[in-house]
Amino acid sequence: MDYGLLRAVTIQMDVSKDHLHETILQTISAFDLTLKVNNDGANADLLLPHKMTQVECIHKEFSNKGQCIYIAIIDDGVDYMHPALGGGFGNGFKVRYGKDMIGVDFVDENSSNMVEDDDPMDTCIAHAQTAAEFDWCCSDAILGMWRALDYNGSGPTDAIVHAMLDAKKSNPDKPDRKDIAEEYFRDYAPKNFARFERLYSAKEAPYLLGSEITYVDFIVYHTLEEQRRTKDLKEFPALAAFVEGFEARSNISKYLASLK
Questions:
Q1: How does 34-53 read in b/e, with b if 16+ C-beta sit within 10 Å?
Q2: Of the candidates 148, 144, 147, 150, which has an alpha carbon nearest to the alpha carbon of residue 72?
Q3: Cα(223)–Cα(217) distance, rounded to whole angstroms?
Q4: Helix, strand, coil tally for the chain in percent (to 5)
Q5: pLDDT class for 2, splitting at 50, 70, 90?
Q6: Pick from 142, 158, 156: which is nearest to 98 by CA?
Q7: Measured at the alpha carbon of residue 118, what is the angle toward residues 115 and 121, in degrees to the nearest 5?
Q8: By the number of CB atoms within 10 A of the CB, which of 59, 74, 128, 151 ranks highest?
Q9: Cβ contact 34:28 at 8 Å
Q10: Which pLDDT belongs to residue 108?
Q11: Mean pLDDT of the chain, nearest integer
C-alpha cells in the first residue's frame, strides 16, 4: 500500500492454520490500494525492497547515494571481488575495512578452532545479488565487513561482540562530525521537513493517517525533537499542528512535564 512513506504492508499468518490463508489473501487483494503482481511479471519490480522503501526518492530529492556514510556489517563474510563492490578489499575499494573473526576452519560456536585473520572474504553465491543491490542503493557509502557468523547464521557471542568493538574504531578517515552536522542542517534538513509537511498536510487531522496515531508519528516526533525543531516550525504549519496534537495527548503531556 502506498502511504507516501512505504509501499508495503506486513501480514502475519499462523502457519498451523493453512485453511485460513486463502481467505486472508482474498480479503487483502480486494482493497483498492493493494498492488497485484500478475503472472506476466507486470509490476513485479515494485516487490523489491528498494522500491517499497522508495529509496529512489532519496537519490532524486537529495542527490545522495551514501556520501559520508560508513556501514559496518557483521555477518558471514562478503565476496568483495564482485564488480559491484569494486573488485578488491582495502583502501580504494568499497569494502575498506573488516576482519574474519572466526577463521575459515570454523565449524560451530562450541568449537575451539577459531583463528582470527584480516580477510573477511566469503564466496556465498547469494552475495552477488546483495552486492548489486548495494551498488544501486548507496554506491558512495564506505563498507566494512566483519565475519563472525558461519554459513548457518550462527556464531560465538565473543566473536560478535569483538566484531562490534572493532567495527566502531575501524574508520580512521571518517569526516568531522561537526562538518557533517552543518551540511545536514544546511542542505538536507529543509528538504526532509518539506517532505514531512507535504505528507502531514494531506490529512485534516494532525497525524500521518488522520485522527489515529501510529508508530510512524512517534518516529517523526522523535526526529523533530532530536533536531530541536518542535518549537521552530513556522514554515511548516502541518508539522506544527502535528506537534501540538502529539504533545497534547494525556500520557505524552505528563511525560514531557516530568522532564522539566
A1: eeeeeeeeeeeeeeeeeeee
A2: 144
A3: 10
A4: 45, 10, 45
A5: very low
A6: 142
A7: 95
A8: 74
A9: yes
A10: 67
A11: 78
